[in-house]
Design goal:
By secondary structure, this protein is of the alpha/beta class. It is 25% helix and 25% strand. Strands 3, 4, 5, 6, 7, 14 and 15 form a 7-stranded mixed beta sheet that branches. The protein has a 6-stranded parallel beta sheet with strand order 10-9-8-11-12-13, sandwiched between helices. Strand 9 (170-175), helix 4 (178-186) and strand 10 (191-194) form a beta-alpha-beta unit. The structure holds NADPH dihydro-nicotinamide-adenine-dinucleotide phosphate. NADPH dihydro-nicotinamide-adenine-dinucleotide phosphate is lined by residues 44-46, 126, 129, 150, 152-156, 175-177, 180, 219-220, 241-242, 244-245, 272-274, 317-318, 320, 322, 326. NADPH dihydro-nicotinamide-adenine-dinucleotide phosphate (NDP) is lined by residues 44-46, 126, 129, 150, 152-156, 175-177, 180, 219-220, 241-242, 244-245, 272-274, 317-318, 320, 322, 326.
Length: 330
């Protein structure tokens, strides 16, 4: 089975030399196991952290071993109860063509409800991150004005639309290109700006108007967090989801320089991991499938074909080439 391995650890921005396409024999199927042919693999920013040899919330990738990550595939052989040939299953052995898995390390995807790829995006980990981050971590309530960074990405685009669907007074998004900004307005954001067009703080002040913002969903960190702290209202809440502006940094980043504003404004800043929000999965799935069915939430995908192109897809993700969820189709 062909797989993508980590050839060396990137310093700063990853390059093609950090990855290698290789082949591994498949282990023989044991009782309780299934053989899966992967259909889509998920390309995620957090993988950048696992490429460093640093202990974090998830273990570093081993050198010269296949990368792993979210994937959806089709069961092509089964020695497990509850999984039959033809089932679509979500699992964590992406970045390879075929995977042998314990059946209980997989979950069956309801592909009668949505296309397979959606179970890695809006109906999967990405969607749960957006839903739980906004509603449980930031404790969004109807009438709140919301700002989300990385807004044209997989998580961010869902955050903005969920907030609208649930009665936000105003939803503002930031993204890196004019095309993405235009897309956000199509998706129903009230305002959007390109963070490359000028200082984020000035653009956010203008987009928010006198009402300010009550919730900031942070995918980026750095100057976007600093701008949000300046504009948040008293009692505002921040869901700290990601800090992609610093994933390739080799030095600690200075912003936000105005963190002390959190005192006077009595702000709440809460970091979270989607793995700590699994208790909301069923509620999330019910709500999200209804929003998708009625069209109040839509999702974009950027699909790259071929396992051999997965490293480039990952590098492109960090450079902002994706709109919506970045996926590799095998
Ligand atoms: P996205 O689809 O948002 O893709 C990443 C995007 O980040 C790019 O498209 C790019 O868009 C933007 N970006 C890259 N560099 C910068 C920069 N320097 N400044 C501002 N924006 C930048 O990925 P996801 O939706 O999968 O993830 C979004 C965030 O959520 C990430 O920070 C990720 O780590 C985090 N996350 C956290 C989880 C958790 O459990 N806490 C779970 C899942 C994701 P642009 O063109 O706009 O720059």
């Amino acid at each position: 089975s062909r797989e993508i391995r980590l050839a060396s650890r990137p310093v700063g921005r990853p390059g093609p030399e950090n990855f290698r396409l290789a082949e591994s024999p498949l282990p023989e199927l044991q009782d309780g196991q299934i053989l899966v042919r992967n259909l889509y693999i998920s390309v995620d920013p957090y993988m950048r952290g696992r490429m460093n040899d640093v202990k974090s919330y998830s273990a570093p990738f081993a050198l010269d071993a296949a990368l792993d990550g979210g994937a959806i595939g089709e069961v092509i052989a089964s020695r497990a109860e509850g999984r039959k040939v033809g089932d679509a299953v979500v699992h964590q052995l992406g970045w390879r063509e075929f995977a042998v898995l314990e059946a209980d390390a997989t979950s069956v995807a309801r592909t009668d409800l949505a296309p397979a790829s959606a179970f890695l995006g809006a109906l999967g980990m990405t969607g749960l991150t957006a839903y739980a981050g906004l509603l449980k971590v930031a404790e969004f309530k109807p009438g709140d004005a919301v700002f989300v960074s990385g807004a044209a990405g997989a998580v961010g685009s869902l955050v903005g639309q969920i907030a609208k669907a649930m009665g936000a007074s105003r939803v503002i998004g930031s993204a890196g290109t004019a095309e993405k900004v235009a897309r956000l307005l199509e998706l129903g954001f009230d305002a959007a700006f390109n963070y490359n067009d000028g200082p984020v703080r000035e653009q956010l002040v203008q987009a928010a108007g006198p009402a300010g913002i009550d919730v900031y969903f942070d995918n980026v960190g750095g100057d976007q967090l600093e701008a949000a702290l300046a504009v948040l209202n008293v009692g505002g809440r921040v869901a700290m989801c990601g800090a992609i502006a610093q994933y390739n940094s080799t030095e600690p980043t200075p912003a936000p320089r105005n963190l002390a504003l959190a005192i006077g404004k009595q702000l709440t800043l809460r970091g979270f991991l989607v793995s700590g929000q699994r208790q909301h999965s069923a509620e999330f799935f019910g709500k999200m499938s209804a929003w998708l069915a009625e069209g109040s939430v839509r999702y974009d995908e950027t699909v790259v074909d071929g396992l051999e192109n997965a490293p480039q897809a990952f590098m492109d993700l960090l450079d902002g080439a994706n709109t919506g969820k970045m996926l590799v189709r095998l």
